[in-house]
Amino acid sequence: MTQSNETTRRWLRRAGSARLEFGADYNPDQWPREVWDDDVRAMREAGVTIVSLAIFSWARLEPCDGEYDLGWLDEVMDLLHAGGITVDLATATASPPPWLTRKHPEILPVTRTGEVLWPGARQHWRPTSPVFREHALRLVEKLATRYADHPALVAWHVNNELGCHNVYDYSDDAARAFRVWLRERYGTVEALNHAWGTAFWSQRYDDFEEILPPRLAASHPNPTQQLDFKRFSSDALKDHLRAERDLLRRITPEVPVTTNFMVMGGMNPMNYADWAAEVDFVANDHYVVPGPQARDELSFSANLTGNIAGGEPWFLMEHSTSAVNWQPVNVAKKPGELARDSLTHVAHGADAVCFFQWRQSRAGAEKYHSAMLPHAGTDSDLFRGVARLGERLRELAPIAGSRRRRAAVGIVFDWESWWTAEQDSHPTDRLRYRQEALDWYTALLDAGVRADVVPTGGPLEEYRLLVAPVLHVVPAALADRLAAWVAAGGHLVTTYFSGIVDENDHVWLGGYPGALRDLLGIRIEEFGPLLDGESVALDDGTTGTLWTDRIDVTGPDVEVLARYRTGEQADRAAVTRRRVGAGSAAYVSTRLGPDGLAGLLPRLLGPAGVAGELPAELAGRVELAIRGDHWFLINRTDQPVDLQALPGAPEVLEARGVAVFTN
C-alpha cells in the first residue's frame, strides 16, 4: 500500500503568511446575479478566505454537447478575487447533465439486482464508463485551460465525494473492467481459482471472460469475489481521480489537486489510506450522526484523517453549521457545538475549515441543510456564530502548518478487515468493525489518554501500544511485522475475530486466532457469537456482548487478566496477556464497550508505560490533542470545566468549549 506520508505534499497556491482557511461550497448559479455582490460582502464580514466553486455546475457550464457557457464563472471568479477570496475550483464532473444521459444512457450505473440508477439526483455515472470518462475529461480540459492563470485559483477540486452514491456498479462496463483488474492482480485464471477457492460450489473458471461482478445470486456469492469486487470498486474510482488529476497537472502543474474523502461513520467502500498518495493534500467531509458517541466519532474520524494524511495538515472540505437534511430527524446544533466541532478537526490537523454550503438553498433536495448564511440571513444567531468562528480561526493562524504530535497509543485501522469481517455467511451479522474501534477510542478518551487512529500501512512501529480491534485480515507479512515489533518491546492488544484469514479471505488453519495464535499463546476451536439480548459476565465485574470465545491457553507465559464467571465458558479465560521478548500480546474475547474497557485499560496501559498527560480530575471530561507546541482542550461535556490544575490553561473551559494554549 502506498502511504501518504511518503508523498510530497503541496498546500494551496497562494502568497502571504500562513493561515487557517475558512469557507464553504459556493453555488452562485443557484441565485440571480444581484445576490452575488451581497454574498461577497457577507463572506468578508464572516472572515471567509476560500470557497469551493462550481461543484455541481456541469449543466450550466456545458448546457449542450460541446457548447460552453463560462462567462458567468469568469465573473464570479473575478468578483471573488476582488473581494480577497480564493477559489478551490471544482471540475464539475460529479453529476452529468441531462443531455449527456439522454444521448448516452449507457453511462448510468446498474445495481446488483440489475436496476438502472436514473437521472434526477446526483452521481448517476459509471466509474468505468469510457463514454463518461471522455466527456468528463473534455470538460476538465476546458476549465483547466481557461482558468490556469486566474489569480483566484488556489486548488483543483476533482469531482465531489467520489463514490458516495455510485461506488458499486454492476454494469457490463464494470464487468469488463473487473476482468482487466483481475488479470492484472492474478495473471492467470488458475491463480484466481486458487485465490477464490472456486473448487467450492463448482465455481471453477476456465477463462477470465466467464467472470462477472457479484450480482444478485441464488445464495451467498463467493466471498473472495466479493472482497475483490470491493477492492476493484475502490480502485476504479481512484482511477477516475487519477485521470482528472493527471490532466490538471499537465495543464496547470503549479496548482495542487485534491478531492474530498468521506472519512465518517459507516462510509467504508473507498480505501482512503490507499487513495491518499494520489492527491496533493488530503481533504475530508464529515457530518455528525446523533448518538451517545457522536462527538467521539467526530474526533475519531478527524484523527484517522490526520493519519491518512501522514500527520501533515489537511483540509476539512465540508461539515455543517447546524442541522443537516438527510437524517430521519435533523436537529439543530446546540450553542457552542458549531465551534467545538470545527476546532476538533483543527486539533487533529485540519488547516482549513469549510462547510456545505455558503448560502442556504431556496430550492432543491438540500434546501433544509444548514449553511453559513441561513435562510434567516445575516441577522441571525447562526451567522453571528459563523463570524465568531472566523475570528477565532484568524487568532489561531500561528497553528497553520504545524504537525500533530504522535501519541503513544495507536488504534490500528484496516479497510480490508472492515470489508471482510462484515460480509455475509459469517458467525454473526451483528459485528460492526468500526464500532469496536470507536469503543476503544472512547475508552481511551475517558481515561485521558491520547491515541492515534492509524492505517495498517502506517508507522505502527513508532507506537508503544497498538490496539488492533477485529484485525480480521492478516497476511503473513503483517503477522511477521507485528511479531517482530512485539519482540522488540511493543505491546499489542487485539480482539475477537482477529487474525482469522489471509489476504485471499482463506482461513488460517490450526485454530483461531489464526495468524496471531502463536504470538498470543492461545487457541480457540470454535467461534462463540452471542444472540441478541445474550451477555456474558466476567469476574472483573464487566459484561460482554456480541461474542465470546472458548479459549485454551497454550503458552506457559500467558497471564489471564479476566475470566468468564457464568455460562458454558465459566472459569475460562476471557482476556489474556502474554509476555513476548521485551513486549506483550493481549487478547480480548468479547465486546466490552467503553464502560467495560475502562477497568481493563490500566492493566494494558501499565506494562506499555503509557499514562495520561492531563491531571486526573480532567481525564474523561476533556479531550487533549496536540499540534506542535499548541495544546487543544476540548470539553466533552455540557458543563463548564475547571482547568486550574493545568498550568498555562485558562481557568475555566466553557460548556462545549475549546481552549488552545502553548505548553
TrEMBL record:
Q: Which family does it belong to?
A: Belongs to the glycosyl hydrolase 42 family.
Would I find Hydrolase among this entry's keywords?
A: yes
**Where in this chain does the record put each Beta-galactosidase trimerisation domain?**
407-610
Catalytic activity, reaction form: Hydrolysis of terminal non-reducing beta-D-galactose residues in beta-D-galactosides
The residues covered by the Glycoside hydrolase family 42 N-terminal domain are 25-395
* Top enzyme class: hydrolase
What EC number(s) does this enzyme carry?
3.2.1.23
Q: Write down the InterPro entries for this protein, in alphabetical order.
A: Beta_galactosidase_Trimer (IPR013738), Class_I_gatase-like (IPR029062), GH (IPR017853), Glyco_hydro_42 (IPR003476), Glyco_hydro_42_N (IPR013529)
Q: Keywords in UniProt for this one?
A: Glycosidase, Hydrolase
Q: Which organism is it from?
A: Actinoplanes flavus
Origin: domain of life = Bacteria
Q: Which CDD domains match?
A: A4_beta-galactosidase_middle_domain
Query: What is the protein named?
Result: Beta-galactosidase
